[in-house]
Design a protein that fits this description.
This protein is mainly alpha-helical. The chain has one domain (2-257). The protein is 76% helix and 2% strand. It has twelve helices and two strands, in the order H-H-H-H-H-H-H-E-E-H-H-H-H-H. The protein has helices spanning 2-24, 26-29, 36-46, 50-53, 57-62, 65-86, 88-103, 122-137, 140-154, 168-207, 213-245, 250-257, and strands at residues 111-113, 118-120. A two-stranded antiparallel ribbon has the order 1-2. The longest helix has 40 residues, at 168-207. The radius of gyration is 23 Å and the shape is elongated.
């Protein structure tokens, strides 16, 4: 019984960090990993960790219930931070698509996302899935898995809780700022085109008041977006490459805010 208990404890501790990252990272949530599938992926990611923590197995088992729960909670917090940091490019792409659909007046065409059980925009889903495709093609999953394992050297399982200091709050605000900045950079060209189209329609309505511009605005904006979409994709791919390339600096950045 003690052997079984020790194995279960080690497995629970090893799975806490990858489980928390998988729960929030769009790389996994967009694939529909929920319930048993998510647990299975976390279990597979935790298997290579168990042999490295068997030397501390006696210490982990001997800490007792409350301290063991605290260790698992610490591991989950670190996993959540990693998942949030890696999710910035994908949330930026989705936010850019939401802004574009709102500006072109197609927010009425929102659809239900079965993976998130919430309404999402068509353009936002398209840009996010495109970003995910570039992420997988560029070997992004290896980067995420490598960061999870490397984080065990920065914050070992039996180490004390990472110390939050004055700059930690700026990290969380910086993540939000990166999402908003990325959304503006990605969606900016289309928004500018839509602004020019609206200005042109306003000018035409002043010249010819009899034209029903309110009825024509939606199809005109849709045509304008699809007309510039091939050129815009070149810009989107360049911005996506830059944002995905920045993911390699996530672990050193987190290490600077969590001692």
């Amino acid at each position: 019984m003690e052997t079984i208990y020790g194995t279960v404890v080690l497995l629970a501790v090893a799975m806490a960090r990858p489980s928390a990252a998988i729960m929030i990272l769009p790389v996994f949530t967009r694939l529909g990993l929920t319930g048993m599938l998510r647990s299975a992926v976390a279990f597979v990611l935790a298997l290579p960790v168990i042999p490295h923590i068997t030397t501390d197995s006696a210490s982990i088992i001997a800490v007792g219930g409350p301290m063991l729960l605290a260790i698992i909670a610490k591991e989950a917090v670190i996993g959540l931070l990693l998942g949030i940091a890696f999710g910035v490019p994908f949330w930026a792409a989705q936010s850019a698509g939401d802004v574009i659909d709102t500006q072109r007046g197609s927010s009425i065409a929102y659809m239900t996302d079965p993976t998130a059980l919430s309404e999402v925009s068509i353009t936002g889903t398209f840009l996010e899935l495109t970003m995910l495709a570039l992420f997988f093609v560029g070997g992004g999953p290896n980067l995420v898995i490598g960061a999870l394992y490397d984080s065990l050297q920065v914050w070992p399982i039996m180490a004390l809780f990472p110390q939050f200091h004055g700059d930690t709050a700026s990290l969380l605000l910086g993540i939000l700022d990166n999402v908003l900045r990325g959304a503006l950079l990605i969606g900016g060209p289309i928004v500018i085109v839509l602004f020019v189209v609206e200005a042109a329609m306003a000018l035409v309505s002043r010249i010819s008041p009899q034209l029903p511009m309110s009825d024509l605005s939606l199809p005109i904006k849709a045509i304008a977006v699809f007309a510039v979409l091939p050129i815009y994709l070149v810009f989107f791919l360049d911005q996506s490459k830059r944002m995905l390339g920045d993911l390699g600096t996530i672990l050193p950045t987190l290490q600077g805010f969590l001692k």
